[in-house]
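Q: How do we represent a protein-ligand complex in a form that can be generated cell by cell?
A: Start from the inputs.
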Amino acid sequence: MTEHHILVIEDETPIRRFLRASLQSEGYRVDEAASGDEGLKLAIRQPPDVVILDLGLPDMDGQDVLQRLREWYTAPIIILSARDQEPQKIKALDLGADDYITKPFGVGELLARLRTALRHSHRVGPEETTVVLGDLRIDLAARLVHRGEEEVHLTPLEYKLFTTMIKHAGKVLTHRFLLREVWGPLDSQENHYLRVFVASLRRKLEADPARPRHILTEQGVGYRLASE
Ligand code: CA
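Then emit the C-alpha cells for the protein with calcium ion bound:
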C-alpha cells in the first residue's frame, strides 16, 4: 500500500498535534502548516494527496486559501470548521472543498472522512463511460441507467441532476452548487426544485427511498452521492 501524504493547515497547536498523531498512527505521512501562507507554500513544494484545511487561520481567510489552492490543486480538500462557521463552511464547499469536519471531532470520524476522500480522489474520468454504484449501472455514452437488471427511465432533468452527482461522487454538493449546475444561475435560490427532483430520483434508484443508500442527505448543506 502506498503511503498517503496529508497536509494539515491549522493554527491551533493542540488540534494540529492531535491530527498529526492520529494520522501518523494510521500510516499517513503528515506535513503541518500553522498559517495559510505556509500551507500554500508546502502544498506547492510537494502536492499532498489530501489537504485538511482549517477555516479560521490567523493570516488569511481559510476560504481564500481554498480558492488559491483550487486554482491548480485538484485532489480532495477537507475543511475543518467550528460550529458557528456554518455559512463559511457552505461557502467553502461551493468554492470546491470536498467535505467538512465540524470541531470538536473524534479520530473515527476523521479517518472515515479521509478514507472517503482518498477513495473518491479518482473520480469519473472522461475516458470512462460506464459507472457502477452498488446495484446501479450507468452507461454515460448510451445514457442508460440500470438498477439490477431493470432499466430505469429518468427524465432529462433527473438524468442531468444524477450525472452531475456522478461526476462529483463522494463529494458533499451544496444545494446552490446543484441548482446552478442543473438549472443555471436564475433559479439558484429554488431549493424546493431540488427536493422534488431528489425525491423522484430516490423513488426510481433506491431500493428503499426512505433510507437512501446512494443519494445521501447532508443536513442543512446539500447531498452526497455515495460511490459504492
Ligand atoms: Ca483556527
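Residues 11-12, 54, 56-57 surround calcium ion (CB under 6 Å). Residues 191-205 form the longest helix (15 residues).
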